[in-house]
Amino acid sequence: MLKHRVWILGGVMIAGAALAGWKWWSSHGPQDTVLHIYGNVDVREVQLAFNDADRIAHLYVEEGDTVKVGQLLADLDTHRLQANRDAALARLGSAEEQLRKLMNGSRPEDIRLAAANVEEAQAQLDLAKKMALRQHALITKGNTDQQSVDAADSAEQAALAVLHARQEALRLERLGPRQEDIATQHQGVVQAKAEVMLAEQQWDDARLLAPHDGVIEERILEPGSMVTPQSPVLTLALNHPLWIRAYVPEPDLGRIKLGMLARIRSDSQVSGQSLQGWVGYISPISEFTPKSVETTDLRTQLVYRVRVYACPNSERELRLGMPVTVDILPNVPGAVTTCTVRH
User: Fold this and answer.
1) How many domains is the chain partitioned into structurally?
2) Could you tell me which of 293, 244, 290, 219 has the C-alpha nearest to residue 36?
């Protein structure tokens, strides 16, 4: 009977030693088995808003619609913007025509007109001189008064001033516009072009385009609503690049490396089918920061966030927020170079 008990006790001790050795080997020995981690397809959202303030005219998408980058999603009422743009274009046209006028200089017709005015002024001066001479001759004979003589002299001086003014006008017509006026008008054209660019930008801002490929998650506002740049209109969930947010327990952290291949499986996929992916990011910080009083046993319960990139799923096997299982394949280092469905 004693011998029988000794055998039982020895068997229990051997089994315990074997179990302890297996646990040690599992945590310290080579890890050639597949590592299973669990997570969700990460949801990344963009709040889309107009870069201007006005009333929404149209929304062209519904919740759940798949959109491509650059696709028109919504637009604003453009009556005010159209008027602003037309006015800016008109100001630009006027400024350019004024600059063209200055650059062309004086027309030959204007120069001939100025020359004719000089001739007219010369004729008026000649007449005024004759009248003044006649008055001076009459006063010596006592046939006129001093007031008439003074008036004739004043008329001669006025005619001379008119002649000088018209001669100067002719000289300026022949010289053409001042360089300072041309430079000022150049700046006026630049300003008018800037106003047109601003009006065009405001026109473009009245159209809301998809910044990325994705899925419309929510219609926040509806047509007829007044919006500002601070008012989101749509919520866009991004689907490229697609990655899985998963968590690795601390004891398994040494079994996963950047670039390792992975299989991604969801409950909705056909049995045995999976998508290919690779480990693209491993957080250097535990998800829950341990306190200094925690023991080694408590620290081993911490997890680390892992990002597993998935190959493009044209058939949309993976949807945003979907729970998935990720199988990290051991001893397969290196990034994925081809993206195919793995069976």
Assistant:
1) 3
2) 244
Strand ordering across the sheet containing 66-67: 44-48, 234-238, 214-219, 66-67
Residue-level length of the chain: 343
Q: How far is residue 39's CA from residue 152's CA, in Å, rounded to a whole number? A: 110
Q: Domain range spanning residue 144?
A: 84-201
Residues 243 and 97 in one domain: no
Residues 161 and 131 in one domain: yes
Give the pTM.
0.62
Q: What is the 3-state secondary structure (H, E, C) of 198-262?
A: HHHHHHHHCEEECCCCEEEEEECCCCCCEECCCCCCEEEEECCCCEEEEEEEHHHHHHCCCCCEE
Phi-psi region of 66 (alpha: psi -120 to 50; beta: other; left: phi over 0): beta
The CATH number assigned to the domain holding 315 equals 2.40.30.170
C-alpha separations of 89 from 49, 119, 160, 193, 256 in Å: 27, 44, 48, 8, 62
Task: Flag whether 6 is in a domain.
Answer: no
Mean local confidence (pLDDT), 130-138: 87
Q: Calculate helix-pair angle for 108-140, 146-175, nearest 10 degrees.
A: 160
**Residue 214 near residue 67 (C-beta atoms within 8 A):** yes
If asked whether residues 131 and 196 sit together in one domain, one would say yes
More confidently predicted of 328 and 297: 328
Is 8 domain-assigned? no
Whether pLDDT at 12 is above 60: no
Please, how many CA atoms are within 13 Å of residue 257, restricted to the half-sphere of its CB? 10
Listed residues 201, 225, 257: the one ending a domain: 201
Instruction: Report which of 87, 83, 93 is spatially closest to residue 189, judged by C-alpha positions.
Output: 93
Give the pLDDT confidence score for residue 92 in this predicted structure: 95
pLDDT in tens, 51-78: 999 999 999 999 999 999 999 999 999 9
Residue 15 tokens read as 């089994």
Does residue 296 register a pLDDT over 60?
Answer: no
Tell me how far apart the 2 most distant CA atoms of the chain are, in Å: 181
In the sheet that holds 54-59, the strands lie side by side as 207-209, 72-76, 54-59, 226-227
In a domain, 51, yes or no: yes
